[in-house]
Design goal:
Layout lengths: L1 H18 L4 H16 L3 H19 L4 H16 L5 H22 L4 H18 L2
């Protein structure tokens, strides 16, 4: 696992250096790094990459691009799945996911698996809010 993070960091850093943070390859390698860091519960580092990558993806690819939406989903997931998350963080995750679901439905349709997955995360977030 540590080896994979080292390799992903290196790929991401080299891609950003060669092509810029907004290039689709940099966004893709950043997304892979964020996803892996989140799965390994290295959320602080995942947030650092997201802070750089999300604005670059929005500017270069637009808010409706699949990778931009995936970065937003990762951001919401980091907020929501952190064991010690606050109610404010869950509310922020809900706001992010409401927008993601709306954009996915409009851009890709309701039947796309990514849209269904996003709706599932939004449902989980709302369940957590309802349970207190």
């Amino acid at each position: 696992r540590e080896e994979s993070v080292v390799l992903l960091r290196e790929v991401y850093a080299r891609t950003v250096a060669l092509r810029g943070a907004g290039h689709i390859n940099a966004v893709g390698s950043g997304l892979a790094l964020v996803t892996t860091l989140n799965k390994l519960q290295m959320r602080d580092e995942a947030n650092l990459v997201l802070r750089e990558q999300l604005p670059a993806a929005q500017k270069a690819l637009g808010n409706d691009h699949d990778m931009t939406l995936m970065l937003n989903e990762a951001r919401a997931g980091i907020l929501f799945y952190t064991p010690e998350c606050t109610r404010e963080e869950v509310l922020e995750a809900e706001a992010i996911m409401k927008e993601v679901v709306q954009r996915r439905r409009r851009a890709f349709g309701p039947a796309l698996p990514a849209t269904v997955r996003a709706e599932g995360l939004l449902f989980d977030v709302r369940e957590k809010l309802a349970s207190g």
